[in-house]
Design brief:
disordered C terminus; about 35% helix
């Protein structure tokens, strides 16, 4: 049986303590009801990273920043409330003495992020809006929300694969684009959206799934494509993984697209694109839509009033300085290199020192996390993978 309910953390602490006292691994695993593989893995985690490694680890892919074991985070918060004027440096020093040499104490940036979560950090200005929440919007009119996806790939007559990139307007059901691409790489998708934005203007938000190139498993689930959308003032929505019904209108269009354009497939990509173009015209201007009282999508859609005019300049008047991230997403700060994320390559980021050698790093209106110059690491402000990201 698994760990008992006294709390998994307490059971792990008891397990490790008794192992440190010399009890055999086999006997301990039998008593605690776990496999020897789990026991060895747990003890190795403790030896490598100390007490922090005994906390529950997330089951979703990727690393979740700033998740501290509850006792450690509680100790940080309690000490800060006892000493409200102390910064992360002093708190870390006292915690190191309190827990002793066998426990790995979090970095100052991690401590600062924990204090921030509990509302114990004073900000020099009003709190900046962050990407948060999982709710999907209910658009009221055209261009409030566009939905995009790749319809499943299929093989053309010449043996090559075709990956249709599709975009619809959620409110009007207007089919904005069906592009026959050779893959899902970012470059042709950038080109396709650039052309679409020039033709139709900018939407308020775009909804997608969590796959490339719309999202990634990196910082905040952002990709270079979604960072570009944010720069343009376009919000981001992502459906919950495994729930395509949250993009149900778009998926229903895919079924019709498949039935009318791919059975059988065209001989090559040019011929297939011609089929897609004819389908788009028929779907928008000829085919009555039941959800529109048998009107056509073209009768309900109008071009967005938000014209595409290139990327606006970024400025950070409330920050101490700003820097441009390098090709690998790193920034230089006081002669030290800190990697933020490759999706921010070439983007200007704002930096503000919140205490000695601890810096807040921001992109546009979003606070990404805290840099600890001593450790040369970024502790991100936790945002669930797949949540909505939208500008204010």
């Amino acid at each position: 049986m698994p760990w008992r309910e006294s709390t998994a953390m307490e059971e792990r602490l008891r397990f490790v303590a008794r192992r440190l006292e010399g009890e055999s691994m086999t006997a301990l695993c039998r008593e605690f009801g776990i496999s020897r593989k789990t026991g060895h893995k747990l003890f190795a985690r403790y030896k490598e990273s100390g007490l922090e490694a005994l906390g529950d680890r997330p089951r979703r892919p990727g690393r979740v920043a700033n998740r501290l074991p509850m006792p450690v985070e509680a100790a940080i918060v309690a000490l800060r409330r006892e000493r409200p004027s102390w910064g992360a440096r002093k708190l870390r020093e006292v915690l190191a003495k309190r827990f002793g040499p066998d426990v790995t104490i979090p970095a100052r940036s991690t401590i600062h992020a924990a204090l921030d979560r509990h509302g114990l950090v004073e900000h020099a200005r009003a709190r900046r809006p962050r990407a948060a929440g999982t709710a999907l919007s209910a658009p009221a009119g055209p261009n409030d929300l566009w939905c995009c996806d790749f319809k499943g790939e299929f093989r053309l007559g010449d043996g090559k694969l075709c990956y249709p990139l599709t975009v619809t307007d959620q409110a009007s059901r207007y089919l904005l684009m069906v592009e026959a691409l050779e893959g899902t790489s970012e470059a042709p998708v950038f080109t396709a959206f650039h052309r679409l934005f020039e033709e139709r203007g900018l939407p308020a938000a775009i909804r997608s799934d969590n796959g490339a190139p719309f999202a990634s498993r990196g910082l905040w689930g952002l990709s270079k494509l979604s960072v570009w959308w944010l720069r343009l003032g376009v919000g981001i929505e992502r459906i919950t993984p495994g729930k395509p019904q949250q993009n149900g209108r778009h998926e229903r269009m895919h079924l019709t697209l498949k039935q009318e354009t791919t059975r059988p497939a065209a001989r090559n990509s040019l011929a297939q694109q011609a089929r897609f173009d004819a389908f788009v015209e028929d779907f928008n201007a000829v085919r009555p839509h039941e959800a529109l009282d048998m009107q056509t999508p073209a009768s309900a859609y109008a071009r967005s009033p938000r014209a595409f005019a290139g990327l606006p300049e970024l400025a950070y008047p409330f920050h101490d300085l700003d820097v441009v991230a390098s090709a690998n997403g790193a920034i230089g700060l006081h002669g030290r290199q800190v990697v933020i994320s490759s999706v921010f390559a070439g983007q200007r980021l704002g930096l503000r020192e919140v205490e000695a050698d601890v810096w807040l790093v921001s992109f546009m209106h979003y606070d990404l996390g805290y840099i600890d110059l001593e450790a040369r690491t970024l502790q991100t402000i936790d945002t669930p993978f797949g949540s909505r990201v939208s500008p204010k």
